[in-house]
Amino acid sequence: MSTTTPVPQLRLPGQAAAPEGPVDMAMMYVAHHAFRRDLRDFARAVPLTPVTDRAAWRALERRWAVFADVLHHHHSGEDAHLWPALLDRAQGEDRATVEAMEDEHAGVDPLLEACRDGLTAMVAAPSADTRSALTVRLVALREALGRHLDHEETETIALVQRLLSAAEYDAIDEHFKKTLTPRRLFRLVPWALVEVPTEVREELLGREGGTAHRVAWVVSRGSFRRLQRAAFAHLPG
Ligand SMILES: [Fe+2]
Q1: The total number of structural domains that make up the chain
Q2: How many CA atoms lie less than 13 Å away from 174 in the CB half-sphere?
Q3: Which pLDDT value is given to residue 3?
């Protein structure tokens, strides 16, 4: 159990909590903010996108692939490294909290597949019925993932702060970084920073070891913005 001084924690719109402790959870909160933002946009954009706009549906499918890849990377890293590290130390009710995280990830997977299949169907054989079914699935996924992220931020990150030191968390984070190929990094950085306040973005990109992230941001933000505009072409504003 850690006894080190609490560090300042990032808070972003939609975040349920930011438990105090020795571990800086900023990157986790940036990812969670982006997952919530994406599902808000997909759930709003799909019913507003005309069935006949093939370019928009193809862009939505490509944009979904970015979201799904980052979410898979995030959840599989937590399942493989973060939850086991917590289970090594957790007792009683704390164990049940961590085990619920695994179950919630597993519960989200079929909804993710159903949404991807719906988008694929809108590209291959678009129809109003398929679009309606996809809208329902997106709302269900948004609710399920939202509940999971709220639960994780409120209870599981409180456990991270109570049971792990900053150095132990950094060692776990190294596993995430190892699977961050340059291709994934160039997609992830502009995706993660959409709607993040400028001062927060600059602080994150200016951190030690942040040069690769800044390069990825500068090089790929233009192409990501074009994909974003094409996918969410029918969202007002
Ligand atoms: Fe997470």
Answers
A1: 1
A2: 7
A3: 52
In this prediction, residues 51-66 reach a mean pLDDT of: 98
Residue 30 structural domain = 26-231
Q: Is residue 133 part of a domain?
A: yes
How far, in Å, from the CA of 35 to the mean position of ligand 1? 10
Q: Is the residue at 186 inside a domain?
A: yes
**Contact yes or no for 26/34 (Cβ under 8 A):** no
**CATH code for the domain in which residue 131 is found:** 1.20.120.520
Nearest to 117, CA basis, from 129, 106, 133: 133
Residue 35 has pLDDT above 60, yes or no: yes
Question: Residue 59: pLDDT band by 50, 70, 90 thresholds?
Answer: very high
- Ligand 1 geometric centre to CA of 25 (Å): 10
Look-up of token digits 């005309």: 50
Q: What is the spatial distance between Cα 81 and Cα 221, in angstroms, rounded to a whole number?
A: 30
Indicate whether 3 belongs to any domain: no
Structural domain includes residue 2:
no
Cα 215 to ligand 1 centroid, rounded to whole Å: 25
CA of 89 to the centre of ligand 1 (A): 19
DSSP string, 18-40: ---SSS--HHHHHHHHHHHHHHH
**pLDDT tens-digit series, residues 178-223:** 888 888 899 999 999 999 999 999 999 999 878 999 999 999 999 9
| Confidence grade of residue 176 (pLDDT, cut at 50, 70, 90) | confident
Q: What average pLDDT score do residues 72-86 get?
A: 95
Question: Ligand 1: distance of its center to the CA of 50 in Å?
Answer: 34
Average pLDDT over residues 126-152: 98
Rounded average pLDDT over 84-98? 96
Residue 54 alpha carbon to ligand 1 centre in Å: 33
